[in-house]
Amino acid sequence: MSYTKDIEALSSVIGANSTWKDINPESAVRMRLQNRFNTHLDIAKFNAKTMREDMAAYDADNSLYTQSLGCWHGFIGQQKLISIKKHFGTTKRRYLYLSGWMVAALRSQFGPLPDQSMHEKTTVADLIRELYTFLKQADAWELNHLYRALDDAKEAGDAAKQAEIIDKIDNYETHVVPIIADIDAGFGNPEATYLMAKQMIEAGACCIQIENQVSDEKQCGHQDGKVTVPHADFLAKINAVRYAFLELGVDDGVIVARTDSEGAGLTKQIAVSTQEGDLADQYNSFLEGEEVTDPSTVQHGDVLVKTAGKLIKPTKLASGLFQFRRDSNIDRVVLDCVTSLQNGADLLWIETPTPNIEHIKGMVDRIREQEPTAKLVYNNSPSFNWTLNFRQQVFDAWEKEGKDVSGYDRARLMSADYDNSELAAEADKWCQNFQRDAAREAGVFHHLITLPTYHTAALSTDQLVEGYFGEEGMLAYAAGVQRQEIRRGIATVKHQDMAGSNIGDDHKEYFSGEAALKAGGKHNTMGQFENN
C-alpha cells in the first residue's frame, strides 16, 4: 500500500464528482486502510497463502515452527494478537486455534457441553467470524492511533515524523492471522461436512482440522471411548472439505487430518474390502478376534471376516462396536497418517497420551519413511499434567543413566516439596524447550494449546474474587488488575478507546466536520490514563 499515492488516486475520483465536495480523500483512504479485507473469504485466501509460505519455510528450516493459542471469544483473540505485536513486533508464524472443546464448553446455546459434537453446527463458523471481526477492529484501532499521530506531526510541522508515520502505515502488518479451525469429526455424513466446511471458509477459515472418529460417537481426544471409522469414510470427508475450499476459490486451503487411533480401541463398522491387502483389509487386520477353523463353532449372530488370509470372528461388544487389538494402536496411527497424506491432507495431528518427544518421533519417523515431508500439528494439551510428565521423564532418564534418584518419589513428583529440587529445575528446562525440540526432532510444524484462555479466565477471575470480596476490597482490582494494565502497557486500560470510541469520534468528524458531537472531550474520564 502507499498512503500518499492512494490519496492522490482517490482525489481524482472525488474531484470528478462535483456533489462530493465535502468528502476528504485522505479520510476516505484512512477508512479503506482500516478495512483491509472486504469479506471474510478474502481473509481465508490471504491466510491460506500465509500458511503455505510458513509450511515451506519450515521444510527448509525446522526451527521456523508456528504456534497458536485457543481463544473462545473474539476479544480474547484480539488481545492475544495485540499483545504479540506489542512484545515481539510481528505476528509472523503466530496463529489462532479454534477448539471444538471450547465451542462446546463456552459457546453453545445449550449451555456448557462436553466435547462430543453436541453443540450447534453453526457455532464454529460464528466464532471464526467473530474472531476475525475483532482482529479487523484491532487493525482499525492501531491505524487510528497512527492517523492521530500523523495529524499531530502535521500540526507541529514535523516533516521527519510525518514521513516516519507514513512509512509505518505503508508497511502495516495486520492482526489478521490464520485460524486452524476444528470441525470435529465432520458433524454427520460427508455432505454435512462439506456444508459446514463451506460455512467455516466463508467465515474466514483457511485451515480446517478433521478427525477420524465416528461423528455421532465423538469423544474428546483425551477421554476414553473413542471410536474410529474405516479409511474410506474419513477420506470422503477430507474430499468434502477440499471441494468446499475449491468451490470458494481458496485453492490452497489447508487440511489437517487428525488420528485418534493411538487411544481409540474401537470401530463401529468393519471396512468393506474387495481384495486381500487393500486399505479396508489392512484396517480389518487390526481387529481383535479368534480365528475360525471349524464352521460349527459359529454361533447365531456372529460376524465373520476374512482378513490377512484368515477367517476370524471379531470381538463384538454389547454396544455393537468391534474391538481392535491392544497392540495395534501405533500401526494404525501410521497407516492413518500415511493414507491421509496420500489422499489430500496437508498436515497431520496425532493425539498422544503424554507430551513425550521420543514417542512422537518414533511415529513420525515411520510415517516419513513413506511420506518424507510429513508435518504435525501438535496439541500441547491442558489435559496433560505438564509438570508431572516432565518430572517423571527426567526421573526415568536419570535412572536409566544410573544417576541416584533415591531422594525422589516418582509417584509424588508433583508435590511442591520438589519445586526447588535439581530434578524439578531440569524438568522445567525440558518443558521450556519442548516445542523447539519437538519441531526439530519430531516434525512438529505447529504447536498449539487448545484451551489455555479457558483456564486463564478461570484463574484470573478466582484471583480477583478472592481479594475483592475479601479484605482487599477495591484494592484487589486497583492493584491486581488496573495497576498491572498500566505497568504492562495493556491497551484495555483505556477501554473506551479499545472498544472503538476514538475511531467513532474521528468518523463523526469526517462526516459532520466541526459540528460533530464527540465522546472524547476533556470530560471523558479516559483522560486520566493519557500519561501512563
From TrEMBL:
UniProt entry keywords in alphabetical sequence: Lyase, Magnesium, Metal-binding
Q: Which GO molecular function entries does the Swiss-Prot or TrEMBL record give?
A: isocitrate lyase activity; metal ion binding
What is the cofactor note? Can also use Mn(2+) ion.
Cofactor(s) of this protein: Mg(2+)
- UniProt catalytic activity: D-threo-isocitrate = glyoxylate + succinate
The record's listing under InterPro entries reads:
ICL/PEPM, Isocitrate_lyase, Pyrv/PenolPyrv_kinase-like_dom, Pyrv_kinase-like_dom_sf
Q: Which residues bind Mg(2+)?
A: 182
Biological process terms from the Gene Ontology for this record are: carboxylic acid metabolic process
The annotated active site, in chain numbering, is 220
Q: Can you say what this protein is called?
A: Isocitrate lyase
